[in-house]
From TrEMBL:
Sequence intervals crossing the membrane: 13-32, 44-65, 77-96, 108-128
PANTHER family: GEO07735P1-RELATED-RELATED, TRANSMEMBRANE PROTEIN 17
Membrane topology of this protein: Multi-pass membrane protein
Any one GO BP annotation for this protein: non-motile cilium assembly
Family of this protein: Belongs to the TMEM17 family.
Function recorded in the entry: Transmembrane component of the tectonic-like complex, a complex localized at the transition zone of primary cilia and acting as a barrier that prevents diffusion of transmembrane proteins between the cilia and plasma membranes. Required for ciliogenesis and sonic hedgehog/SHH signaling.
Signal peptide coordinates: none
Protein name, per record: TMM17 protein
Species of provenance: Platysteira castanea
Subunit organization: Part of the tectonic-like complex (also named B9 complex).
Length: 156
């Protein structure tokens, strides 16, 4: 019985769990400091992004842990999709949009968070691919053995 979970992905998730509160505190503190100088639409966008990222990150990390450790394909696929679609583009928006008046500390924590997300997208893809292929092979072998048992013998 081969272990399909990924150690690099699990290590990345572990460090991400400890990094996310630090990222959140830095981002909220800097948002509080620069809030008066931002335009109204950037104020709305940043508050919305903080709420979206906070909720999505909790769900994403839970799905990553369950999907990787328990080798569950649907949970790992959900983790991969939540990493690829809402999280990575939002962090890249926060990192590269100069209209947000980005502080150097803010840029540093966004770079680390973007590196976590990029690494997790790549590693989760290959882990998911390996899990799906192995589970499909197990299913085919089980079906083959079931059909062999049901087939009548040569003398019957």
């Amino acid at each position: 019985c081969e272990i399909l979970s990924s150690l690099p992905l699990q290590m990345s998730l572990y460090f991400n769990v400890y990094f996310f509160p630090f990222w959140w505190l830095i981002t909220v503190a800097i948002l509080y400091l620069k809030y008066p100088v931002l335009s109204d639409y950037y104020k709305f966008i940043l508050v919305t992004i903080m709420i979206l990222v906070s909720l999505t990150e909790l769900i994403r990390l839970y799905l990553g842990y369950v999907g990787n450790l328990l080798e569950k394909v649907p949970e790992l696929a959900g983790f991969w999709l939540l990493t690829l679609l809402p999280q990575l583009p939002v962090i890249l928006f926060l990192l590269f949009n100069e209209g947000l008046k980005i502080h150097s500390l803010e840029r540093a924590v966004h770079i680390v968070f973007a590196a976590f997300l990029s690494f997790q997208v790549i590693v989760a893809f290959f882990t998911l691919k390996r899990m799906v292929n192995t589970l499909a092979t197990r299913f085919r072998l089980t079906e083959f053995h079931r059909l062999e048992e049901q087939r009548p013998g040569p003398g019957a």
